[in-house]
Structure formats: C-alpha cells, structure tokens
Design a protein that fits this description.
By secondary structure, the chain is mainly alpha-helical. It has 16 helices and 3 strands. It has a 3-stranded mixed beta sheet with strand order 1-2-3.
C-alpha cells in the first residue's frame, strides 16, 4: 500500500520541481529588470572568493538574451544607473553602441553606481565604467600576441591611434563637469593631443588646478610653458583652493612634483602649503608616506 503513495509523492515533487525551473526560466524582461534594480549593483562575471557569477550577473545575462538591439539601446538610457551601466557595457562589448554618446550622456548625469568585482566592492562613476570598458576592450584586443614587451607596445599604440578613444579623450578634456580624476589621468597619458586643445588644457592646469593637465604640459610643451609652469608652482599653487574629492588627487600630485624637483625652494613651498591647509589630512597617511620618502616630517 505504501508503494503507490511513495510513487505519487515522487511524481508530485517532480512536477513541482519542473514548474519551479520553468518559472525561473520564464521570467519576463520586466521581472528581470526589477530584480536587477532591487539589488542595484553592477557585478562582474567574477565575484567573491570563488570568482563565480553572481545571481545579479546571471540575471542580466538572461535579460540581454531577450532584448533586441533597440531595447538594449533604450536600456542604456534607463533612469536606473545600474541598468544603464549593464546595458552600456553590453553595447560596447558587442560593438553595437555609440561610445562617445554613451560617455557624454553619463558625464551630464554625473551619477555613481555600486560595483562588485573579484573580492572588491566599491562605488564608481557610471562615466568611468563606460570609459574604462572601452579603454580595456581595445587594449585587450591589441595584446593578443607577442611577448610582454610587444604586447605593451601594441596596447600603447592602440590607445594613441584609436579614433573612438581619441574622441572619448576629447570629451573628457572639454567637459565642464567635475570629471572623475582617473579619467583625466588616462586621457593625458594616452597620447599627445592636438595643439588646438592647448587653450582648454591650460585652463584645466592653471585655473582648475588639474595636476594631470599640468604634467601633460610639462611633458609635451615644457619649453613653451616653462614660465607659466614655474609661476604656478611658486605663487599660484600657494593660493589655490583644493576642496573636492578630485582635488585630493590633484593636490597630492602637485606635492610630489614639488618634492621631486631639485630646487630646494620647491620643497619649502610644498611644506608651507601642507602646513597652511587642513583638507588633505583626511588622507594624512597617504601624504605622510610621501613626505617620509623625501625625508620630511611636519
């Protein structure tokens, strides 16, 4: 008498399991979008100690398989930054998106997104996610053969000559927004830019106290800008105000420039500025390590 009951129970469990699997794989696009927004984090394909694909990542993979190119493009304009980031990344990787337009739109929105990659969780500007997705993509594609030295050269050349990358850098240089510091760092290291950019780069260096623009002028136009560079370090820097999150990186770079100069007066300028300004003390450990390297203690 027990065997039919056990058989029926097994059959019922099989049906329930099948329905569960069916429901899981029959989620609508709207349901998947809602589940991604609920977590509201951009996960890579490698998260946690085991470098596994998270449910968040898997949900977007399910979602993208259901989307047309137009729907994917529409999602890159979604009100939620996590959805926009995932959609933009897919458009870049599939060569279906207009990367300069994606970057320009995100610079205007100026929004942040929570991220999870490897064992690291953080908060990054969506504009930086888009820029670096393309930056990394072309570097990886250029470094698919040769030894380490040859790969490095290939990546460097690609960054210098890629038309879209040049366009992205131009957008960064001319943006009136407070662009994330790392994007300036990348932009001014990628290549020597067109001379017509110089007025804007001057503005960034001497008016906006952008250390990456300053170092760019010193590297590529040292002779032409010697006087302006010296005047900035000897006078303007002491009066400059550094207040934003980006400014802490600019300020640290200027301190390094001054300390690494053979002119002893420049070291005195660095020490004077550090003693008169307090905002850098939120990152005092970083600055004290730099000072210690140069044998200086405040």
């Amino acid at each position: 008498m027990l065997k039919p009951v056990a058989h029926n129970m097994k059959k019922l469990l099989t049906i329930i399991f099948s329905l569960t699997i069916s429901l899981c794989f029959s989620q609508t696009k709207e349901q998947l979008i809602d589940s991604i927004i609920k977590v509201n984090r951009v996960d890579s394909d490698c998260t946690g100690m085991g470098c596994s694909e998270s449910e968040q990542y898997k949900n977007f993979q399910k979602l993208k398989s259901k989307l047309s190119d137009k729907e994917l493009t529409d999602l890159s304009k979604h009100e939620n930054p996590t959805i926009r980031t995932y959609a933009s990344i897919e458009l870049i990787q599939s060569n279906k998106g207009n990367v300069p337009e994606l970057l320009s739109a995100e610079l205007q929105k100026n929004e942040m997104v929570e991220t999870f990659e490897g064992c690291l969780m953080g908060i990054d500007p969506v504009s930086s996610m888009i820029y670096h997705e393309y930056w990394n993509k072309i570097r990886i594609e250029a470094s698919n053969k040769g030894n380490n030295y040859e790969r490095e050269l290939a990546m460097k050349k690609k960054l210098e000559t890629d038309f879209v990358m040049e366009k992205l850098d131009s957008i960064i240089i001319y943006s009136k927004k407070d662009v994330y510091w790392l994007l300036y760092d990348r932009t001014f290291k990628n290549r020597k830019h067109k001379d017509k950019y110089l007025p804007r780069i001057e503005e960034l260096a001497f008016k906006n106290n952008n250390s990456y623009a300053f170092e760019y002028l010193d590297k590529y136009y040292s002779a032409e800008y010697t006087k302006k560079l010296e005047t900035y370090l000897q006078t303007d820097f002491l009066e400059a105000e550094f207040q934003t999150d980006n400014d802490i990186f600019y300020f640290h770079s200027f301190i390094e420039i001054l300390l690494e100069n053979k002119n002893e007066n420049y070291k005195n300028i660095a020490v004077e500025k550090l003693r008169n300004d307090d905002f850098w003390k939120v990152e005092s450990g970083w600055f004290k390590t730099t000072l210690k390297k140069h044998g200086i203690e405040l």
